[in-house]
Amino acid sequence: MKSTETLHIKTVDVDAHYPQCLAFRREAYQCSFGHTDGFDDAFEDYEARIRSRLELPEWRYEHVWLGDEIIGQLEYKAYSFEPGLGYVHLIYLAPEYRGAGIADKLQHYLAKQFLSLGCQGAILSVSKTNVRALRHYQKNGWNFLKSNCQMPPKQTDYYQVRFQSLHQC
After folding, report:
1. Are strands 121-127 and 85-93 parallel, antiparallel or unpaired?
2. Mind giving me the DSSP string for 55-72?
3. pTM of the predicted structure, to 2 decimals
4. pLDDT per residue over 9-43, tens digit each?
């Protein structure tokens, strides 16, 4: 990352950037499960979901920009199955930008957004085999909550974070 380039986060422009949304989602699925079997079925109505959810104040679909390039995507909402906690559906960063400190900045950005939405913390579901993501989340204060029974057995777990555990929020 060039020091002169600025990181920006903007609401997804579905008309202009839907193919990028889908490509990021596919890559995230591959990273999580080691394959894309079932992806097309699971995301066949993805564009419609994004469009309808963007109309709701509690949902966010955002692209992460570095200069004039989209390098990541965030999907989250201001509620979950735990009272007072939001839910992160996706934190995606293009492979060439991983390990550069950007993900840590996104964690702090998300914390600030959730706090502004009235959430005390957040929950996400992460694949047990996505070791890099697990290390990142644990480093940033996320703790195991419980197994995700909605996914095929033993593939993903729920993690949670309370924002007082994030140092710059």
Report:
1. parallel
2. TSTTEEEEEEEETTEEEE
3. 0.91
4. 999 999 999 999 999 999 999 988 889 999 999 99
